[in-house]
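Folding Query — how this chain folds
Tokens — whole-number codes for backbone shape
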Amino acid sequence: MFNIGGRKPPTPLEQFLLDFVWTHPSCTAEMCREGLASERKLKDSTVRTVLRKLEEKGYVTHSVEGRTFVFRAADTRRNVAVEAATQLIERFCDGSVEELLVGLVDHQVLEPNELQRLAQKIAARKEKQA
């Protein structure tokens, strides 16, 4: 397993809880357990352990309100996705974003017209920054 931006990637169960934290900022372990119960029943101790591991990996932080830990995502979904994509590009495409994009088009993951639309968005952002 490889590291994403120096962090160990989340396991599937960690990702499941991280997704909840992203959509429910400032949540407690109990809120996570209750909020996820319809999809997967988890013990309170399991939720707390997974949140602690996510914090050790740098994906969440906590503050203490009274005696309760309140968890927040340490980074946005987009930033974590960028880290993962960067690692993929470095590992499998010899650092070439072009190689990845051509592969996505070749395998019909990304349509050529979508690629053109993205190029226009990128150009517009560059103009704003200039």
Observations:
- The helical segments are 12-23, 29-36, 44-57, 77-92, 97-106, 112-129.
- Residues 95-130 form one domain.
